[in-house]
Amino acid sequence: MYVAGAFLVMFVAAGVGATAAVVVGWQSGDVTPDSAKTGMPEGSKTETSSTAKASEDTAIEPSSDSKNSKDTEYKASFVHRATEKNSRGDYTYISDPSINGHPNAIVLVSHKKDPRSASYEHHIGVWYTAAADKWAIFNQDRTAVPAGATFRVEVPLESASFVHHANLLNTAGNYTYLDDPLTNGEPDAVLSVTQNWNPGGGGGVYNNHPIVTVYDAKLGKWAIYNRDGKSMPKGAAFNIAVLAGANEPAR
């Protein structure tokens, strides 16, 4: 473990063979440093069945299955709009048959820009609340989600997605390296990434920083890193999808 960690630190510092890549699902804006914290997102409360039912009004566009979704890469894709009924402080409930009651689902979200409104100055993520059996989108800085905020939600196929956990062996500085057959040795892969506060439910870790991916040609692996240079907290987790056709041999 010591040798592997030292190697990663040396490599990240040198930046050998790194090639920048596009990331889907991170939000730009001013960053307020925030150390890793555990517990429920601020404003979280154990809900009764009546309050959970009230959260079902999610103001979304109809979901689609894999036959109708974009290039069959997603089994569901829809737009979610935050309202007073579906939001609780710093998070807003999502409701869709493809993910309701599924704490191990892989959910990707990104803010849907509206030219008529100001840019969304928050880094976002998703978390699963067992009390409501639903996923929710939350602000990493724990500020309230404003009514009217709109997000694109996509649920990738299981065969093209996975969850990555930052730990002592794969993380150094502001980097955490992925290790999955979908991405290893695939420099032309197209990755979509969303921070997942608590994979499988339970407690979680915040990472209030903009994230980007990069391919390490020497190691043959992709990495996620905090673009502002802040340390990647151990325990941070990420939902990752590799788009269909991205794993064709490099030319």
Structure description:
This protein has 251 residues and is mostly beta strands. It has one domain (17-31, 49-251). Helix content is 8%, strand content 29%. It contains 2 helices and 15 strands. The strands form 3 sheets. Strands 3-4-7-6-12-15-9 form a 7-stranded mixed beta sheet, with no helix packed on it. The protein has a 5-stranded antiparallel beta sheet with strand order 1-13-14-11-10. A hairpin with a 4-residue loop joins strand 6 and strand 7. The longest helix is centred in the first third of the chain and has 13 residues, at 2-14. Residues 1-39, 43-72 and 246-251 have low confidence and may be disordered.
Radius of gyration: 18 Å
**Fraction of residues in helix:** under 10%
| Average pLDDT reading | 77
Strand order of the largest sheet: 3-4-7-6-12-15-9
| Assembly context of the chains | single chain
Biggest pleated sheet: 7 strands, mixed
H/E topology pattern: HEHEEEEEEEEEEEEEE
Uncertain ranges = 1-39, 43-72, 246-251
Principal-axes shape call? globular
Number of helical runs?
A: 2
Number of domains: 1
Distance between the ends: 35 Å
Short description:
This protein has 251 residues and is mainly beta. The chain has helices at 2-14, 49-54; strands spanning 18-20, 74-81, 87-88, 91-93, 108-111, 124-129, 134-139, 150-156, 161-165, 171-172, 175-177, 191-196, 211-216, 221-226, 237-242. It has one domain (17-31, 49-251).
Secondary structure elements and pairings:
Layout: H1 2-14, E1 18-20, H2 49-54, E2 74-81, E3 87-88, E4 91-93, E5 108-111, E6 124-129, E7 134-139, E8 150-156, E9 161-165, E10 171-172, E11 175-177, E12 191-196, E13 211-216, E14 221-226, E15 237-242
